[in-house]
């Protein structure tokens, strides 16, 4: 084995249920920047991405479209691979869970865990959320909705295999507590420990019999392996785990970092390490849960018509503008926002102005004052040192930020140098030096320093914006662009002749571009297809439902249930308590005093230990991205009938 430093980084494998949006693109671009940086700094990198192709949801979509699941995913996966090409993603391997070697590995893993007694056969009875591919207990699936995504869950009752999660829980808690770097950022670690691990883990259902699009359990082929066990195993099957061809596994495992969105951190920090413990394998060194990219402050969804397609953005602004925004605008570990206007303004200020102008001004002056020939730095002054020191400190600062996976900070360090170089032009006023023949050497030195600062920036930026790094280096005819070469401020070769190059980031007319985008959005706005109408009922059927006007007297969140609100309502002097799954849409204070409609003769039920005496009516989009309670606009005696 070589003693080279290795670095293994993964993205989640994406569901090819629809084409990917800007949010999924973020994870992959961030992983790409890290992979490129590690390669540049001498690591032997394995960067894995891919697609998670099995499961009920994909089977259903394919059935609706009248194609086989494999044909359906083949087309979407090809699109995903095209997107990664467009985004300049330098993955080393692309895994598809429909690949034969992966399927074999998953079957072997399942068998081993069964043979060693960690998996047993039982019966599953509970709730299942198909879009999230998640099982929920009665107390978790509140109001018949998935506690993660809020969509309706379905009952699932079937023979199934279970994994004895609880057997490993204590070991995992200890591991997490003794390895503070394992779950990052810190807040996510506490969430996992307090919300999931410490309250006690239930055994996990790990097979399904109600659909067939999955990896069959080898010794019981009526069952397919639960998608999360199938999916998580990709991180080791891709390296040849448990096969004759396991050199990559020996070389790269354990993984340095699994980069995942915050919604799937639970699977990566509880299920996955427990599966690995059961297999007797080392655990990944780190799982980093990044925040979400919101659009105009809200979640992206088809029905809102706010899904941002990275391909459209790249076609308008280029790959690196999109990469820059994603890498710089999502704060370290928390949610970020996409907004077209902020995006365009950022491209103008940071890329066109700060970086692009620095390059074009510098090359233009070398061409104008020295026929393009780079001069040696023979006439130094004190003022140069500040620029030079910032340049020399920058790589260490970038490295420190990257090691914490703080990519916006790393970019800020590079931009500190770029902005300092712009200021240096204003301070040294080369156009004034140019008027004085005696200042030629000084002018040459100033321009040398600017070119060298740009070379530093180009090397450091190349992991984030690879095309831009290369373009700058081509225009400056940079000879050496290694990471080592930016430890000394002397890598630029005097005597080389520069030519006028293209503007790397043309300035964008903000108003005109926004208007163009609006027009595009209008044209593309999807119209929600109405759900098919239910079976006809008689007036007598309808009259069985007793709908009454009630006034909301009090309202508060239900502890430990982020989707629920507890309402106290007045029904003609009677006070009732209603638990309603509307916490995502209303703050308690928004509802107090409102007149809403109650299904007053609905049998009382307990939700999360709280009694609910009736149901509040609400209208929502099919994907639940928007919801409004049915409200009576003005005061009406409570208890009035709604007919
Ligand atoms: N297939 C599973 C992952 C299995 S990994 C063993 C899955 N796929 S996904 O396609 O739904 O999501 C993939 C990644 O995209 C997740 O990390 C998720 O957090 C991320 N994102 C989806 N929407 C996002 C945003 N709006 N913003 C940032 N990332 C988001 O989950």
What is this structure, in a nutshell?
This protein has 643 residues and is α/β, with parallel strands linked by helices. Among the domains are: 148 residues, Isoleucyl-tRNA Synthetase, Domain 1 (Orthogonal Bundle), CATH 1.10.730.10; 104 residues, Beta Barrel (OB fold (Dihydrolipoamide Acetyltransferase, E2P)). 42% of the residues lie in helices and 19% in strands.
Keywords:
643 residues; alpha/beta; Isoleucyl-tRNA Synthetase, Domain 1; OB fold (Dihydrolipoamide Acetyltransferase, E2P); 6-stranded parallel β-sheet; 6-stranded antiparallel β-sheet; 21 helices; 42% helix; binds 5'-O-[(L-methionyl)-sulphamoyl]adenosine
Task: Report on this structure.
Helices cover 42% and strands 19% of the residues. Among the domains are: 148 residues, Isoleucyl-tRNA Synthetase, Domain 1 (Orthogonal Bundle), CATH 1.10.730; 104 residues, Nucleic acid-binding proteins (OB fold (Dihydrolipoamide Acetyltransferase, E2P)). It is of the alpha/beta class and 643 residues long. It is built from 21 helices and 24 strands. The strands form seven sheets. It has a six-stranded parallel β-sheet, with helices on both faces. Strands 15, 16, 17, 18, 21 and 24 form a six-stranded antiparallel β-sheet that branches. Bound molecules: 5'-O-[(L-methionyl)-sulphamoyl]adenosine. 5'-O-[(L-methionyl)-sulphamoyl]adenosine binds next to strand 1, helix 1, helix 7 and strand 11.
């Amino acid at each position: 084995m070589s003693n080279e430093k290795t670095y293994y980084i993964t993205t989640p494998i994406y569901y090819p249920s629809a084409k990917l949006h800007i949010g999924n693109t973020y994870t992959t671009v961030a992983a790409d920047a890290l992979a490129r940086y590690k390669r540049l700094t001498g690591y032997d990198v394995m960067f894995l991405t891919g697609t998670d192709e099995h499961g009920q949801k994909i089977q259903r979509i394919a059935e609706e479209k009248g194609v086989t699941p494999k044909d359906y995913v083949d087309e979407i996966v090809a699109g995903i691979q095209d997107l990664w090409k467009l985004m300049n993603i330098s993955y080393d391997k692309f895994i598809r869970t429909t690949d034969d070697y992966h399927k074999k590995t998953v079957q072997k893993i399942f068998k081993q865990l069964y043979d060693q007694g960690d998996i047993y056969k039982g019966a599953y009875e509970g709730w299942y959320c198909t879009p999230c591919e998640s099982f929920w207990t009665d107390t978790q699936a509140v109001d018949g909705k998935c506690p993660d995504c809020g969509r309706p869950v379905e009952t699932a009752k079937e023979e199934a295999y279970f994994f004895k999660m609880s057997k490993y829980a204590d070991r995992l808690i200890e591991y997490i507590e003794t390895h503070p770097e394992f779950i990052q950022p810190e807040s996510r670690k506490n969430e996992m420990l307090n919300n999931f691990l410490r309250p006690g883990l239930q055994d996990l259902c790990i097979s399904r019999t109600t659909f067939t699009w999955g990896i069959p359990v080898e010794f019981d082929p009526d069952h397919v392996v639960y998608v999360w066990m199938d999916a998580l195993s990709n991180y080791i099957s891709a390296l040849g785990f448990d096969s004759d061809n396991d050199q990559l596994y020996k070389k790269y495992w354990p993984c340095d970092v699994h980069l995942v969105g915050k919604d799937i951190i639970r699977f990566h920090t509880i299920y996955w390490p427990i599966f690995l413990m059961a297999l007797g394998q080392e655990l990944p060194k780190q799982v980093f849960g990044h925040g979400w990219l919101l659009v105009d402050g809200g979640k992206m969804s088809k029905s809102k018509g706010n899904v941002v397609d990275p391909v459209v953005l790249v076609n308008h602004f280029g790959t690196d503008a999109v990469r820059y925004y994603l890498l710089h605008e999502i704060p370290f570990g928390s949610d970020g926002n996409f907004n077209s206007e902020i995006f365009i303004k950022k491209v103008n200020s940071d890329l066109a102005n700060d970086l692009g102008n620095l390059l074009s001004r510098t090359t233009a002056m070398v061409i104008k004052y020295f026929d393009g020939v780079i001069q040696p730095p023979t006439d130094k002054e004190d003022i140069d040192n500040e620029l030079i020191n910032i340049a020399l400190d920058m790589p260490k600062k970038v490295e420190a930020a990257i090691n914490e996976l703080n990519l916006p900070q790393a970019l800020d360090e590079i931009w500190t140098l770029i902005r300092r170089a712009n200021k240096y032009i204003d301070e040294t006023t080369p156009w004034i030096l140019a008027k004085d023949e005696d200042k030629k050497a000084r002018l040459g030195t100033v321009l040398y320093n600017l070119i060298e600062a740009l070379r530093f920036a180009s090397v450091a930026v190349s992991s984030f914006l690879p095309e831009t790094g290369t373009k700058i280096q081509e225009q400056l005819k940079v000879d050496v662009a290694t990471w080592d070469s930016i430890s000394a401020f002397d890598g630029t070769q005097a005597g080389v002749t520069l030519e006028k190059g293209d503007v790397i980031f043309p300035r964008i007319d903000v108003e005109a571009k926004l208007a163009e985008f609006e027009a595009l959005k209008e044209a593309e706005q999807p119209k929600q297809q109405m759900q098919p109408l239910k079976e006809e009922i008689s007036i007598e059927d309808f009259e069985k439902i007793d709908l009454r006007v009630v006034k909301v007297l009090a309202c508060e969140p239900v502890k430990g249930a982020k989707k629920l609100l507890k309402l106290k309502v007045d029904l003609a002097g009677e006070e009732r308590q209603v638990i309603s799954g509307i916490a995502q849409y209303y703050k308690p204070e928004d509802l107090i005093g409102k007149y809403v409609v109650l299904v007053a003769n609905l049998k009382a039920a307990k939700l999360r230990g709280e009694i609910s005496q009736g149901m509040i009516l609400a209208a929502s989009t099919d994907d639940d991205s928007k919801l409004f309670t049915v409200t009576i606009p003005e005061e009406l005696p409570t208890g009035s009938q709604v007919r």
